[in-house]
Amino acid sequence: MVGLGNPGQEYVYTRHNLGWAAADFLAQKRSLGRPTSKFRSEFWKDRDFILIKPLTYMNLSGMAVRDAFDFYKMEPADVLVVYDDMALPYGQLRLRGKGSAGGHNGLASVVSCLGTLEVPRLRIGIGNNASGNKIGWVLGHLPDEDMKRLPDILESVANGIEAWLSLDLERAMSKVNVKTEKKPQENETKAQSAEQ
User: Fold this and answer.
1) Which helix (H) or strand (E) holds 163?
2) What's the angle, vertex CA 146, arms to CA 61 and CA 109, rounded to 5?
3) What's the domain count of the chain?
């Protein structure tokens, strides 16, 4: 499982780092302790999977994934990429077995480095803003309202990862891809002016 994000304190609790937040949450939930440094990533090894947070910055995430992929002699279907997605409302999850990168530079790097679009992915909705300032939105910090919901969302992500590990893809998708009620965007002005 690969959680996508950017290293550095300034990126903590930004929308673009929800993949990293999910990795940290899962490592804590499974009591995996502190990560080691391996594959240009923060790295944990559990009995049935490895967990990495690439330290390459988002746009080069695929290099770290490829390092682990080659070392463990994986197939693309063995990889689950977890990342933020503006096309989904905040907190909505979507599990898929393949597809395009949909404009996400981190996933684009992964599929490029693995040489296939058939890479399983779990998208975490971050919603969108009306201004069209995509970079400001994804690199903006989560407002208080969204921070309150984050623990429940990360629990759902962890459950989705567990489903992917234990079930075939179709059954895992039917369990994860349940629509949540769309909530109105709040604190948009604050989010748009958040530190980039």
Assistant:
1) helix 144-166
2) 10
3) 1
Q: Which of 183, 180, 165 is nearest to 82 (CA)?
A: 165
Token output for 179: 């629509």
Strands (E), the chain: 2-3, 36-38, 41-45, 50-54, 81-85, 93-96, 121-125
Catalytic-role residue among 16, 53, 94, 104 = 16
pLDDT tens digit sequence for 72-113:
999 999 999 999 999 999 999 999 999 999 999 999 999 999
Pairwise CA distance, residues 45 & 36, whole Å? 9
Place of tokens 């995430």: 61
In which domain, by residue range, is 170 found? 2-192
- 84 forms beta bridges with 124
pLDDT, tens digit, for every residue of 12-29? Answer: 999 999 999 999 999 999
pLDDT digits (tens, 9 = 90+) for 27-54: 999 999 999 999 999 999 998 899 999 9
Say whether pTM exceeds 0.70. yes
Asked if 16 is an active-site residue, the reply is yes
Cα 166–Cα 169–Cα 101 angle in degrees, nearest 5: 120
Residue 119's φ and ψ, nearest 5 degrees, are -120, 120
Could you tell me the CATH number of the domain that includes residue 98?
3.40.50.1470
CB 11 within 8 A of CB 17: yes
